[in-house]
Design goal:
three-stranded antiparallel β-sheet; 23% strand; mainly beta
């Protein structure tokens, strides 16, 4: 099941490649490459109304590929215009720069006690 030319759109990042926009299981759109790929990690299929759907093949609870699905790669993995977040110098990688402090405990005075 290969999408037709009118179902493909140009990449939103500006690389010029044609991609297929699919809807994930969580309702988000995900562009995948226009042709199936044997090392892809997305199972792509067309549902009854004709929309393209995708689901992940990664993870412990992922089902194997069904007969009506084909493997595709997400376009973000192959897009030449993709930007990668660079680490900022002087900051630890992947962590917070400092620990959070707790707010001081509020001390309430009982209303019935006189001063």
């Amino acid at each position: 099941m290969i999408p037709t030319r009118h179902e493909l759109e140009p990449c939103r990042h500006g690389c010029g490649q044609l991609v297929l926009i699919t809807m994930t299981e969580h309702g988000r759109s995900m562009p995948v490459d226009a042709t199936p790929h044997e090392t892809g990690n997305q199972a792509v299929y067309r549902d009854a109304p004709g929309r393209w759907r995708s689901r992940s093949l990664d993870g412990a609870d992922a089902r194997p590929l069904d007969p009506w699905e084909h493997r595709y790669r997400p376009h973000i993995a192959t897009c030449p215009r993709r930007t990668v977040q660079q680490a900022l110098p002087g900051l630890p990688a992947g962590g917070r720069t400092r620990t959070r402090r707790r707010a001081p405990a509020r001390r309430y005075r009982p209303i019935w006690k006189a001063r």
